[in-house]
């Protein structure tokens, strides 16, 4: 074949060298993988559309494929020693749950809130690790108890310190608050078992010294009685609960240290969340769906073995496929079958008007 001009669409026309053959054809070049890589490189860069080497309109056209795909979430069957989990909130009803282990992202999940059901969806695709490091909020402990029952929990000491400081304030006026604030700051300096014992002794001494002070009550004009120092009482109750859970000093367990060091804070995943927020800040103005996709693409590219651009362009799920899956799921539901096909709902799935209303003013017993 040799070149023989171009077609009306601008493609190169190829003609057979045999003059008696007379066949001609044009070659179509698949540039989807190249466009996907162009969009990802721009997304992870610090350049705006006006600062990019390509014209803004050309850049937006090449990014269309990236915005139409959802990167696949890996199934991790390797047992990691430590897994960090945390959520990054983008909206009042949108959060991305992220799991990090061994310097790589091992999973992510989009949810409306940090409920235990959402955390279970994230943990279902990850093999149970030896230790889970988390902030302990939003249903993650309930999900870990159900999905990873044999995994030890290490609460982030920085979050515990921040929770205590939130109740005492940065500059407490009362002596009890000032001493409790110093105890909270000392929690971050616990590195050995001796430090743990000294911290527990200092806290027990604080409770003994201010037991009567914290038991003082206030009586209001309506006759109700409540704690006079409610914030300090709430801090005492919270610390007692944390000590009873035995999840503050898991990182000092000798059996766990044999498999590798266990961090006492969740700083690793928090720093990664900072990088994600920097990326969204550089490309501010994206709508919510694209911000979610941007985080998903960032997580996918920071997995241990991300798929190639050509594979993603050919096999990644698209928005249309996702909408079809949601539509099929809706049509299979009782309410969806009724609204779509007119099929009445089965017994026990609907509410009858007569269950809550009567046709007469006084219902008879007949």
What does this structure look like?
The chain is of the alpha+beta class and 366 residues long. Helix 4 (140-147) links the parallel strand 8 and strand 9. Among the domains are: 73-156 and 265-287, 2-Layer Sandwich (Nucleotidyltransferase, domain 5); 168-264. A five-stranded mixed beta sheet has the order 7-6-5-8-9, with helices on both faces. It has a three-stranded antiparallel beta sheet with strand order 1-2-3, with no helix packed on it. It is built from 15 helices and twelve strands. The longest helix has 17 residues, at 193-209. The relative contact order is 0.12. It has helices at 32-43, 56-68, 116-123, 140-147, 157-168, 175-187, 193-209, 211-214, 230-245, 254-257, 267-282, 288-301, 309-315, 319-332, 334-341, and strands at residues 2-6, 12-15, 24-26, 69-70, 82-91, 94-101, 104-111, 131-134, 152-155, 217-219, 225-227, 317-318. The chain is extended. Keywords: DNA recombination, DNA-binding, Transposition. This is Transposase. InterPro entries: IS1249_transpos, Transposase_mutator. GO terms for molecular function: DNA binding; transposase activity. Belongs to the transposase mutator family.
CATH topology of the domain at 73-156 and 265-287: Nucleotidyltransferase, domain 5
What's the CATH architecture name of the domain at 73-156 and 265-287? 2-Layer Sandwich
Radius of gyration: 30 Å
CATH fourth-tier homologous superfamily of the domain at 73-156 and 265-287: Ribonuclease H-like superfamily/Ribonuclease H
Mean pLDDT comes to 88
Organism: Bifidobacterium moraviense
Function: Required for the transposition of the insertion element.
Family: Belongs to the transposase mutator family.
Keywords: DNA recombination, DNA-binding, Transposition
């Amino acid at each position: 074949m040799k070149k023989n001009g171009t077609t009306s669409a601008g493609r190169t026309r190829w003609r057979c060298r045999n003059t008696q053959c007379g066949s001609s054809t044009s070659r179509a070049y698949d540039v989807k993988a190249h466009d996907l890589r162009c969009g990802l490189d721009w997304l992870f860069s610090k350049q705006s559309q006006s600062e990019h080497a390509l014209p803004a309109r050309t850049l937006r056209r090449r990014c269309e494929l990236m915005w139409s795909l959802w990167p696949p979430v890996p199934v991790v069957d390797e047992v990691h020693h430590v897994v960090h989990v945390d959520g990054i909130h983008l909206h009042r009803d949108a959060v991305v749950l992220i799991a990090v282990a061994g310097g790589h992202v091992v999973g992510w999940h989009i949810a409306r809130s940090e409920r235990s059901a959402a955390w279970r969806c994230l943990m279902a695709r990850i093999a149970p690790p030896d230790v889970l490091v988390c902030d302990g909020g939003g249903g993650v402990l309930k999900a870990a108890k159900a999905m990873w029952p044999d995994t030890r929990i290490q609460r982030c000491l920085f979050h515990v310190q921040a929770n205590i400081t939130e109740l005492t304030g940065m500059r407490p006026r009362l002596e009890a608050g000032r001493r409790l604030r110093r105890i909270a700051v000392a929690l971050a300096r616990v590195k050995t078992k001796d430090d743990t014992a000294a911290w527990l002794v200092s806290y027990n001494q604080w409770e003994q010294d201010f037991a009567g002070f914290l038991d003082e009550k206030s009586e209001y004009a309506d006759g109700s009685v409540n704690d006079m120092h409610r914030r300090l009482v709430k801090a005492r109750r919270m610390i007692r609960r944390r000590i009873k859970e035995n999840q503050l000093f898991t990182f000092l367990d000798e059996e766990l240290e044999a498999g590798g060091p266990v961090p006492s804070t969740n700083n690793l995943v928090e720093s990664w969340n900072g990088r994600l927020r920097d990326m969204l800040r550089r490309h501010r103005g994206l709508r919510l769906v694209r911000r979610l996709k941007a985080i998903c693409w960032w997580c996918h590219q920071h997995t241990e073995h991300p798929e190639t651009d050509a594979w993603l362009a050919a096999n990644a799920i698209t928005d249309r496929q996702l909408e079809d899956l949601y539509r099929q799921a809706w049509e299979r539901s009782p309410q969806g079958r009724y609204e779509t096909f007119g099929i009445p709902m089965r017994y026990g799935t609907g509410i009858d008007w007569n269950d809550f209303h009567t046709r007469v003013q006084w219902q008879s017993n007949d």
